[in-house]
Design goal:
Layout (H helix, E strand, L loop, with lengths): L6 E3 L6 E4 L6 E7 L3 E5 L8 E5 L30 E7 L3
Antiparallel strand pairs: 1-4, 2-3, 3-6, 4-5
């Protein structure tokens, strides 16, 4: 699934996921404030990276000014932004 690259969800419908390997405990992961989600794994490895993102690499063919790059968050002076994530271990069955 990750042989060629990460799975990138630009606007995921959910703000949580549960990862449960065939054996072992599960991870319940949730986030807020981030617009994108990246999932990746090195082929043959024993880990999965779950990364909420705010911003991502330039799309293929994008050659516009940086400030027009898709996925950027623009804050005006005095504005703030908050985001966070949590993870909980759930015992396997």
């Amino acid at each position: 699934m990750f042989k060629d690259d990460a799975l990138i969800f630009l606007h995921p419908a959910s703000r949580s996921l549960r990862f449960h390997p065939e054996k072992g405990d599960a991870l319940a992961f949730s986030w807020h404030g981030f617009e994108q989600l990246g999932l990746w794994m090195k082929p043959g490895s024993d880990f999965l990276c779950i990364e909420p993102w705010q911003g991502y690499a330039s799309p293929t063919g994008f050659d516009g000014p940086f400030e027009q790059k898709p996925g950027l968050l623009h804050l005006q002076p005095g504005e703030s932004w908050q985001a966070g994530w949590s993870v909980a271990l759930q015992p396997g069955s």
